[in-house]
Amino acid sequence: MNIKDIKEVKNCYGEVFMKEIEFDSVITKELIFKIAETGDLQYMDTLKKPFFKISIGESVIIKGTENTTTMRVVYLDETTDKELFFANFVKEYLK
């Protein structure tokens, strides 16, 4: 799985608070559960398109839909080093 595109979503102050990641293949259940090892998983597989939300501490949420090509990384805490978190996230889970 490779990253095809990354879009930064900014708030009204021009600060990045979310990244939308587009992949070259679909997000699998296996990837969702691998990422969830670092946080708390909400996985709603009874929906037509299974939705997931992974809370990592109180500073980051990773969410998306299984079998699609995009997920979002949402930063809740302004003190989070967004670039460092994202670089480590990619290195650890999206090899």
Task: Tell me what the structure shows.
This protein is an alpha+beta fold. It has one domain. Helices cover 21% and strands 41% of the residues. It has 2 helices and 6 strands; from the N terminus they run ββαββββα. It has a 6-stranded antiparallel β-sheet, with helices on one face. A hairpin with a 4-residue loop joins strand 5 and strand 6. The longest helix is centred in the last third of the chain and has 12 residues, at 82-93. It is globular, with a radius of gyration of 13 Å.
Distance, first to last CA? 7 Å
Q: How many independent structural domains?
A: 1
- Percentage of residues in helical conformation: 10-25%
H/I helix tally: 2
Quick recap of the structure?
With 95 residues, the protein is of the alpha+beta class.
Which SSEs are present, and which pair or pack?
Layout: E1 3-10, E2 16-23, H1 29-36, E3 40-44, E4 51-56, E5 60-65, E6 70-75, H2 82-93
Antiparallel strand pairs: 1-2, 2-6, 3-4, 4-5, 5-6
Task: Give the tags.
95 residues, alpha+beta, 6 strands, 21% helix
